[in-house]
Amino acid sequence: MNATVKVMGSEAEADFVVPDHLTREVFRKCLEKDLNVDNIQIVHFEITPGSSPGDNYTSKIYRCKVLYNQPHTEDKTIYFLAKSMIVIHLSDEFSQSGITEREVNVYRDLLPKLSKFLGGTIVAPKCYDIFTEPNQNFIFEDLKALGYTCADRVSGLDADHLKVVLNKTAKFHAASMKLLEEEPSTEAAYPIGFINEISMKEPVVQGFWQGNLKLVAEIVNTIPGYERFSAKLMKVYDNFVDIALKMMRLDPVKDIKVMNHGDLWVNNFLFKYNEETKEPTDVIFVDYQGTFVNSPAIDINYLFSTSAQLDPLRRKLELIEKNYYPVFVNELQRLEVKSVPSLEDILGQIRSREMFSIINLFAVLPLVSINREESKTNDYTQFLDADKSKRKMLIGMYTDRFMDAMKFTLNNLEDVIDEIINEYS
């Protein structure tokens, strides 16, 4: 009747212990609520690490195998995934901004509303329960038990994976446009993402973004043919907060408004594959902590800058045209949304927020590119120590993947950088 802990695999944490808050009562409550009964008995449960060390910065993930029954029935097995948020001490203003409760609101309110417009499309795992003591916790279905697996973070996503992600993102965005059309008040409930006026006042947050810009400026100054970018990036560095906030500002006339997932990178995707061809056939998104209303360019640019391999990064506009836009339009027409954006509208949105691509390439891709051995020690606390943070970022910045993506992006978007910094001349 007791919990069993099994730590499997060479990457499992050696000091792993079962958290006190994942109890028999938690799983019983989840099952009774889901099955609408009051007679569930938990026979046995096992808890193991749910992710590799270094893959999660703001939460701890646990895989839970639960054996249960009801009176006069055989035992059944179900698999849960528990996500426990790490308590991060930021300012009262940040805590009161609502972003720390964002994911709770998404699962309790937003996703149920979106589901009626999604036509059976699944964009998130089933959430069995949410509780906030001793800290914020979510109990999800375990998608791995349903045949979904993670892609390789270090190598990134190829065009086949990105096609599946873009298809699903298009459906999510289209459903949100219908919701915003029917319930305009939804926008006020999800007004800001991770980059906002409040977060930019947090020394740790601002320092993370700006510090990486400065590191890249120093690196390019040592690369033949790229020295000219050093001064340009330092100009962005000097005016970073203003530039970042301008990127997030919605133009009520020109901008298309959708609900952005807000954190579309490779570790927040679980893929299902064709057993014979091994090609990805579906994807489900996790981690809705940064969900907010803004241009679809936010999600799309973030996806490519943080998660695309070099070849699909070069083909970004082609992939958007072939794999995002047609699905987006079909869904909008199915839902009878009043205003359907043109392809030129979407590409214009992408172009107007390419600086968002640039700063996320510098801030996020180095961490994504770090090999698994080195990333085992990654956690949120490293960003509190300037020396540790710099060391980690430099390791990522000197990987082939980051270097190739950086060189391509700087050359491809030099005019975007020039246009931005000319405003501060």
UniProtKB/TrEMBL annotation:
Residue ranges of every copy of the CHK kinase-like domain listed in the record: 138-334
Coiled-coil regions listed in the entry: none
Entry-linked Pfam families: EcKL (PF02958)
Superkingdom per UniProt: Eukaryota
Record-annotated membrane-spanning stretches: none
UniProt protein name: CHK kinase-like domain-containing protein
Lineage per the UniProt record: Eukaryota, Metazoa, Ecdysozoa, Arthropoda, Hexapoda
